[in-house]
């Protein structure tokens, strides 16, 4: 060391006496031998050695504590990877400076560093945070890399959890949408059931007056029955007395009486044979065969008025042939006549013991025929307002009836699979038509001919000859029971409808189907042509009336207004300006 440097060192040492620096020994160095100076070994101080040992032990313990976690992590890594790793212990700050000075041969600077280092360390001016290891960039990078790997793993796990959560959310959303849709459907079905229950409740309430009336009629009938028994007993007593008187009459008188009776019976039989109506001629011409009428403007029809006068479903409706009067047949065991278009009640008929299914006017308009579930056909005199005759030839419920255009014959169809023709003069059955294998639901005459048309539950419609009782032609094609069949005014086209909602149009001249109309899932209960034969109105089970133009084969309009199934529909035959529909909601409507 240079002399100036030594003096400065000594002066610095003397100046630091006030700062309580420990001076080990003052050495004066000459300027002659800088390189050949021999350093003398200083005597060991026990206090300094103990402090150095404690400091060394503290450094060792600290290093062990700092490196303890590293080898443990390394062991886990070795277990996982199966490879040994070597780590370099990081250097302390003072060792770093020593190694640096020794590396470049700076011995004097090393001596000055060590002297000042130990002096400051012994005086306690260094803090523990300052005596840390030298920062190693690789170690930090490695630590950061490990943190990045851990964070990436956690990120990947978070992504997996997020994906699972998303899948669960999609699943829950689909379930929510499904349950919401199911809830809406249940609500719709609930509302529909509520409406049906209200309608049924209202419908059943209408039966209470009928039940009261029937109870009253039953009581009256029982009283009449008792009176009839009393009268019967009285007449039996009279008959016995008369029988005794007759037994006392002589034999000659009895023979004379018997001869007179036989002659009277023979005369009656001859008179009845003469009174039987002749069969209609087959060579008559239809006056409407070449007539052209204006088609009904059903596209402009709206519900003009609704009439309610029955207590049950109205099954059939018919127009009077001469005056604007409508007759209705109802399930409340009655039939009624109404004036149109006011809807005033003209006449009411009671006498059937079950529902009235069909009604028809005589061509002269003086008689009305009705069919019923009590297996009878009744002939009513409109002028006298009473039942004229009751026909009991059928053994099951009768469905419909129709008069011949000449007024001499009446046909009726029944659930007993037969159709019967009655002579209006003798009120006897003149002809029985057998051939259907199920209930015959409807029957009508071909206009101005001796043929009649039937619609049956055996899925067929048939054409019969009134005079011979034979089947002329059978039309096949329906897949379900046929409810109704009708001719147009020209008599060359037949419209038939079935319970599947299918309406078929047939050309009678070539015996073939030329048009099929699908009205939907509900049954087609009845169909009718307008006066021109160009428009067909269909009574549907969905409470509507569907109209079609059969010439252009297009749908015209859907008339809605009833609350229940429409059972029958009829165009006004004189002017063709309106139509009447009957429904199960106990009403009939006028559309104009």
Provide an overview of this structure.
There is one protein chain. By secondary structure, this protein is an alpha+beta fold. Helices cover 36% and strands 29% of the residues. It contains seven helices and 28 strands. The chain has helices spanning 3-15, 46-81, 93-103, 107-123, 137-205, 207-247, 251-275, and strands at residues 303-308, 314-319, 325-330, 334-339, 344-350, 356-361, 367-372, 377-381, 386-391, 398-403, 409-414, 418-423, 428-434, 440-445, 451-456, 460-465, 471-476, 482-487, 493-498, 502-507, 512-518, 524-529, 535-540, 544-549, 554-560, 566-571, 579-583, 587-591. A four-stranded antiparallel β-sheet has the order 1-28-27-26, with no helix packed on it. A hairpin with a 4-residue loop joins strand 20 and strand 21 (512-518). It is elongated and about 185 Å long. The termini are far apart. Residues 1-20 and 29-42 have low confidence and may be disordered.
